[in-house]
Amino acid sequence: MITPNLAEKFKEVVGAPNVLSEKADLLTYSYDAAVLEPVWPGLVLRPTSTAQLGPLVALCNDNNLPLTVRGSGTNLSGGAIPSSGGVVLVTGALNRILEINEADMYARVEPGVVTAKFAAAVAGRQLFYPPDPGSQAVSTLGGNVAENAGGLRGLKYGVTRDYVLGMSFVDSEGGLVKAGARTVKCVTGYNLGGLMVGSEGTLGLISEITLKLVPPPRAARAMLAVFDDVRAASETVAAIIAAHIVPATLEFMDNFTIRAVEDFSHAGLPAEAAALLLIEVDGHPAQVEEEAAQVERICGEHGAARVQVATDAPTRDKVWEARRAALSALARLKPTTVLEDATVPRSRIPDMVSAMEEIGRRHGLMLGTFGHAGDGNLHPTICCDRRDADEWRRVELAVEDIFAEALQMGGTLSGEHGIGLAKARFLENETSRATILWSRRLKAALDPKGILNPGKIVGA
Questions:
Q1: Beta partners for residue 180, in sequence order
Q2: DSSP string computed for 21-76
Q3: If DSSP states are collapsed to H, E and C, what string results for 230-247?
């Protein structure tokens, strides 16, 4: 329980304006982007310095207060939903880019730095930070690390964990832990940074991150392949990868998604197409020329009605902006949007796309599929109304079927959204009972009082 005396102690650390307890504030931080019931916290803290994190966590630990860290709240699995009466710690004011080192190609940042702003700052130094989650315009780097965020470029460039060189984080008692280094190689001690990536705030609070940067590609070419048959499009994805071509991006959109996006963005997408592939190759100019020609040929051989090549940067950017707007476009159609991210081996993409169509038909739901087909990460999206009890029951059954199909194909519950609260009950289906128990023992050892984002990933 948060007593007036304890609230005063929090104010002593961060200042009274940064301790929020009004009903409007508590409601604002009671939910994230997942379709789950909101849970009201007892207090919201907004630290303005990373030095304040240790004392804040120590106060929570000493008073057995559950603590949930929140970046921008774009989480899609309930990872940022607080515990009832607990504390939400918002990292928005911890938003400094501490260093961009051009010679050694790394950067140091605080957890509240917005992903797109960081990428732009790095690009201004002629360097490249590849991870690009769909929420990059608002999501924070601390949240990206906590969720191991992916994005459109994950196929070629990997995900957030591939760019984390080191970090500092605060443990459950308020102590500062340092992991990794600014060097390319570091095997000093346990891989604590690797343990923190994807831990969803259950093991510690990230206070500083050291990120690897890379040289930007010298050339790129974007293409849009139009298909009259969904399976032909999905089989083309597998064929491109089988030809040992690794595009920077290889995205899939079905007709339902295409029409929603075109109505929303007016980007000139062919609304009559059964499916689209949005493809970009990058690298050395000669390599780009060769791979673009191969991709065009493969698309033609597998039934593409036509392949449109972007002739200038504005055309390319318009198409990619439209793709990034897919979720926003679909969310306009009905009051509730359920976005999943079940992922399968790339060779099974055709089967997974077919399965999504069948699941939508079986349960009588408005279901569209888009996503990062090149790395097997699809986003089946159900547009519905949660207030309709019968429809919501069918949605829940459809989600169970989606997960079951993905696992049966050797896939995973989540390619980039995390487990949080929404998928915790399914985790044992992918792993094992021993995995859950081992993870709980690890959690209990590092957080004996269980204050750090309780209930997430492995439950109680």
A1: 166
A2: -SHHHHHHTS--SSSS-----SEEE--SSGGGHHHHHHHHHHTT--EEEESSS--S
A3: HHHHHHHHHHHHHCCCCC
Domain that holds residue 169: 97-212
Q: Per-residue pLDDT for 460 more than 70?
A: no
Q: Are 246 and 327 in contact (CB under 8 A)?
A: no
119 and 258 co-located in one domain: no
Q: How far, in Å, CA of 108 to CA of 192, rounded? A: 17
Phi (first) and psi of residue 414, to 5 degrees? -150, 125
The pLDDT of residue 1 is 80
Maximum distance among all Cα pairs of the chain, rounded to whole angstroms: 72
Measured between alpha carbons, how far is 84 from 80 in angstroms, rounded to an integer?
Answer: 12
H-run or E-run covering 212: strand 205-212
**What is the CA 346 to chain-centroid distance, rounded?**
19
Whether 229 and 375 map to the same domain: the answer is yes
Residue ranges of alpha helices (H) inside 302-337 are 313-324, 326-331
Statement to judge: residues 288 and 393 lie in one domain: yes
Same domain, 105 and 162: yes
Segment 365-417, tens digit of pLDDT: 999 999 999 999 999 999 999 999 999 999 999 999 999 999 999 999 999 99
DSSP at 451: -
Residues for the chain: how many in total?
A: 460
> Domain ends where: 90, 114, 132?
90
Q: Do 65 and 22 form a contact (C-beta atoms < 8 A)?
A: no
Q: Are residues 86 and 104 in the same domain?
A: no
Host H or E run for residue 403 = helix 389-408
Whether residues 268 and 136 share a domain: the answer is: no
- CA 217, CA 251: separation in Å to the nearest integer? 19
Bridge partners for 176 per DSSP = 170
Given a contact cutoff of 8 angstroms between Cβ atoms, the answer to whether 329 and 265 are in contact is: yes
The answer to whether position 270 is within a domain reads yes
